[in-house]
Hints:
Blueprint: H1 25-35, H2 40-49, H3 54-66, H4 72-86, H5 91-100, H6 105-111, H7 117-131, H8 138-147, H9 152-167
Amino acid sequence: MWSNYRxxxxxxxxxxxxxxxKKTALVSAVDILARQEYSTRKLTEKLRRKGYEDxxxxxxxxxxxxxxxxxxxxxxxxxxxxxxNESRNSVRQIEVKLMQRGFAADLVKRCVPEDIWEREKAxxxxxxxxxxxxxxxxxxxxxxxxxxxFDTSALRAAIDEYTADAEE
Length: 168
């Protein structure tokens, strides 16, 4: 039963049912994007790892951009908005996460609203409520929030508000 099986794939030419037609870079890219939204850079990396030639990758990416299936500006803004509105992450953490996902730093910076102080304070309060008792060590609270990338003035205001609630 296993005599025709080899890990290196040799022997597949004997059994035509086992051979799969190789997908084009465009078809693979569409399959990848159907599962999750990616930046152009990350999609290119994925296709390169799959063994596609650079010419074919460039052609596929251009076609996807032409058909509006791939747009870094829109994708970056959508992902920023989701993380900004739905997470406890600081804006700095969100920026780093998006750059790790392959978006250019200037593109990420353009997504950040002008006034983020109130949102940062609210996110700090969420973190404090989940991780600390209100009568806990404020230095530990501040250090934890600072390591998460929160603005110093926002984290101080959040700690003051959080500990004041405990005193009442």
